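Supplementary Methods S3. Complex input for the magnesium ion-bound model.
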Amino acid sequence: MIDILNILLSESFWAASLRIASPLIFGVLGALLCERAGVLNLGIEGIFVAGAMAGWMAVWLGAGLWGGVFFAMLAGAALGLIHGILTVPLGLSQHVSGLGVTLFATSLSYFVYRTSLPAVSSPPRIEPFRALDIPILSDLPFVGPVLFQQTALTWLALLLVAVIWYVMNRTPLGSALRAVGDNPDSVDAQGLSVYALRIGAVVAGSSLMALGGAFLTMSAFDAFFFGMVNGRGWICIALVIFASWQPGKALLGAMLFGAFDALQVRLQTEVGALVPGQIFLMAPYLLSILALVIAARRADYPRALLTPWFKGQR
Amino acid sequence: MGKVLALKGLSKRFGSVQANEAIDLDLNKGEVLALLGENGSGKTTLMNMLFGHYLPDTGSIDVADRQGSLQPLTLGHPQISLTKGIGMVHQHFTLAENLNALDNIVLGTEPLISFKRNTGSALKKLEKIMHETGLFAPLDVSVGKLSVGERQRIEILKALYRDVRILVLDEPTAVLTPQEADDLFDNINTMAKSGLSVIFISHKLREVLSFSQRIVVLRQGKKVGELVTNKTNESEIAHLMVGGGVKSAERETCTPGKAVLQLNQVSITGRSKRDSLFDQSLEARAHEILGIAGVSGNGQAALASLIAGLEVPENGSILIDSSEIEKPTPKKMIGAGVGRIPEDRHHEGIIGTMNLADNLIIEKLDDQEIQNFGILKRSKIKTNAAHLCKSYDVRGPGVDAEARLFSGGNIQKMILARVFEQNPKLILANQPTRGLDMGASAEVRRRLLDARKNGAAILLISEDLDEVLALSDRILVMHDGNLIPAETRDRAQIGLLMAGTAA
Ligand SMILES: Nc1ncnc2c1ncn2[C@@H]1O[C@H](COP(=O)(O)OP(=O)(O)O)[C@@H](O)[C@H]1O
Ligand SMILES: [Mg+2]
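Predicted complex, serialized as structure tokens:
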């Protein structure tokens, strides 16, 4: 017990939680945007891979770190456009199209990586985002290391939570997005384009998802390797339900998962001799399923989620 | 009086259905025009072309601009129709339930990309409109939490907020109580006096005669008549609507027999008050039609699924012929002699992808007549189906065709055939004529009255008050999960009970 308490009180634990949460924050916000507009985007797992690959490769080819961010988002947007066109005006199954995008994006990323680097045995490294060192703030006790020694991308993730909240709840665009995910007819009857809103939301959401992937290769690590996304996209799909499609709760959910994961690593070193390590690896997922079971029963789904809408039909 | 709108030769075809055929229609400033026709006659299609939701196959539309001169309208774009001063309140609500009324109303009236919403000035404008028109609705509550009456008013405010000069209302009273409907028309007349031109769609003769100045009648996609309201009468219009006389069913006097169905203090707790029953009792007797009036969504669904055996009551008992049915299931109820005509005939009444003949036997699969040791007697089923189609006048692509390919009226006749062939002791008729045209409705009512004569007890659930009044021996009004006996047959009194406002 004392051990757990010690862990929970340590700065490194919280700093790690936030670091682990960062890619998830991007991912949940992206999934939230898509689903609020009524489109489930199961392409997320593949878009993470594509973002991780595109961002890393752009930096490796000399585009600079922010150039990498740009190309990652571009890759996400392109994949989002595919999913958007397939599911919105064409009205195909959102599940099938999303899984297709995941398979396609993952394989394409590996293919591009392999064909451009056929001979390497260990993945080439880039110079990733460094922890920001803010004078005074970074030296504060506790909050300093936790908050003010993170990379710019973590800051961007936190900033985006506020931005997305503001857009969704305080601007006309946000009203229209929430409306199109609840009842597309309400938007159509007011002369707005259901297709444009939905495709736009999917494209924007997908570029955020790609940013989540880019965080992995450009901030958490410094290279791209196969299997590195490791189900983070799927976790985001669960977290968005946990978050009831609200940005604030999305941050909370991502932090909760980050904390489970960070705790798991630390407990493993403390009591690893007694319990098999796989139990610890499983713990965050088990706990998020548990959290989901509790939250999802009250979940207030966007009413038009998964339902295609066609212009000029009843 | 200047002309504000001219529809010229509008036609629209959906697959094999000619929904509109060369329709001309004019509208004057400050006029209230009723567009009348049976279900499926093309009223909604015509107005959706005006609003830009559908693109006409042929024809054109002229609309007056602010100065009053007629200009051609670009077709097929709601956005353009809206800017030309045309507003439409659709047959089904087009509101986002997760937004409040204010956000629904201003949606699309301001640029999407901006840092904030203009709530202040929008509120001020709406307050003014609400005072001028008498249409009040709470603006800051999620629409999902509001009643249908409030939603209907929000739909109209939505149109008025855009300064429309032509307002189209598609069956605006379908979900309102009689009082709410009358209030609505009073408001519309006030607005028309101040220059608004209104087209309202209806298939209810009563409201068309009381509240319009001119009537245009559609039948099977064609305009069949144009009448001045105070120079016509009910039978002339009805004649135009159906293209011939419709015999209304004769109701003979019957002496009620013994109780067939008894509900004692039954309760069902649904998701909300609106789909619950609270400690309700009722009795339906042989040779009797018991009418359940009320705006739909007041517990009728709970009552119907209870009697259909789809739901087990939490407390209380159900008795049929004085013997209690414990833990009711559909099978037990059918076995006890209950015939069920469900509300949603397409989803609950038939299995759409199965053929008509199989749908006809689906409630008696273990009957020796149609099967031997689990093997169906195909030819017998088929001849039986052909016979039933003939006696119940089911028309369509044939007994081997999938049931979903039949029209709503014919599906209903097929369900009637299935139910009445079993000589049920109790018939649950839930919205039996909803969406049917006059001819088919009259047929359904005639069959129900026949069953009554032959000794069945009938529970008629209907939101059409005129139907309940015409058929029932006794009337109960349903409101918020409670059944209240109607002491009178006075529309206004029953209307008050429906609204839950009677003393
Ligand atoms: N979008 C559509 N697709 C196919 N058929 C339609 C469509 N809209 C209307 N119809 C058909 O056109 C006919 C007229 O329908 P509608 O205009 O809704 O009638 P009303 O409003 O008078 O009840 C009906 O037969 C209906 O089934
Ligand atoms: Mg209609």
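Residues B 43-44, 91, 170 surround magnesium ion (ligand 2) (CB under 6 Å). The first helix of chain B runs from residue 43 to 51.
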